[in-house]
Structures are given as C-alpha cells and as structure tokens.
Amino acid sequence: MMNLTNRSKVVSNKQMTFWERIYIPAILGGMRITFGHLFRRKTTVQYPEVTREFSEIYRGKHVLKRDDDGRERCTACGLCAVACPAEAITMISAERKPGEEHLYREEKYASVYEINMLRCIFCGDCEDACPKEAIFLTREMVRSEYARGKFIFGKAELVEPFDPAKRIDISKRQTPEVLEFKKNRSYKHNR
User: Which residues pair with 93 in a beta bridge?
Assistant: First the structure.
C-alpha cells in the first residue's frame, strides 16, 4: 500500500512497568492533591446571610432614572434595544398628553418598557447607548425566582421612585468628565 503523504507517525507500543500496572503511584498522587485541597481556606460565601464585596461599578439590576423634577428621562428612542446584543429590551412608545408634563420629560415616552432578565448579559451597552442617560445598571443583584415570568421586568420594577431620598445614586458609574458636564445647566441635555 502506498502512502499519500509522508506525515505518518510511528506509534510506540511501550510496555507498562509493574508500578504503572497496579496504579498505586497514580492513586497516591491523586489523594495527595485531594487532601491538599481539604485544608485550604473555603471560598464559599453563605449568601444571603453573608454578602461578598462588589466593585463600585458592578453591573446589576437595571434602573430607569428620573430627572431632578421627578419626570422620566426615557424618550423611547429605542437605542438601548438596538444596542442590546441579547435582544432583551422591548418598548412601546406613546405621545405625551396635555397635563402630563410633570410625568415625562419629552413629547414621546415609553408606555411599555420591559427587560427580560433571563436574556440580559449585563454588558452595559444599553446605558452606553442611551442619549438621555435614562437607563443605568445598579449594584443591586437580581433576585432569584421560581417562575420565568417574574424575570420580565416592566416599568413597575425598573423606574425609580418619585421620592428623591429613595433614588439610586449612579454617580460612581460616571466619569469625572461626565459629572462636570452635567453641572452646566446651559446645555439643553442637562435641563
């Protein structure tokens, strides 16, 4: 028989020694590794009784921010939904009616805003894409549930409360340049 290529490899048929055939050295080596791990410090945290320390910029549960007057910032532009690689965000826009100026910042707002937390990969692309700084990821963890339907968060779970004392501080997620820019009220974006 003729070879098509000269890449064939000769395999050696090495005979096992007595100690290799009884596997005692291999078993003892495995037991040494196992006992070495038994006496190391445990890294398990007994959550929720004990919580581990998170970074200041940890990406957790989403929040839809309000402006200083308590109006929703979101204008349902859809950029967050387009930027989401997991396609976890859906929204339906609506027109603001006369008399609702105290609720919504712009003429258009999100009447329905939902995030499927089972699909979300917590990448932060939605907060980067938002031109109105309406959506941010907080340090709060998403709670576990037994039913899948409870992981679709609507505006009831996402929009922060009217009370300014209960609002979520997101200043740690912003660079010093952005915080300095937001102090200038002459820009329409900061009004």
Answer: 110
Q: What is the Cα–Cα distance from 74 to 64, expressed in whole angstroms?
A: 7
Cβ atoms 112, 155 nearer than 8 A: yes
Distance CA 136, CA 167 (A): 12
Domains in the chain, ordered, with CATH? 62-190 (3.30.70.3270)
Cα gap 89→109, rounded to integer Å:
15
Q: Which residues of 62-87 are buried (b: 16+ CB within 10 A; e: fewer)?
A: bbbbbeeeebbbbbbbebbbebbeee
Task: Find the length of the chain.
Answer: 191
Contact assessment for residue 74 and residue 94, using Cβ atoms and an 8 Å cutoff: no
Q: Has residue 106 got a pLDDT over 80?
A: yes
DSSP 31-92: HHHHHHHHTSPP----TTTS-----TT---SEEE-B-TTS-B------HHHHH-TT--EEEE
Reported pTM: 0.69
Contacts with 152 (C-beta within 8 Å, 6 or more apart), sequence order: 114, 115, 116, 117
Q: 135 - beta bridge partners? A: 64
Amino acid occupying residue 143: R
| pLDDT, tens digit, 9 for 90 and up, residues 48-62 | 888 888 888 888 899
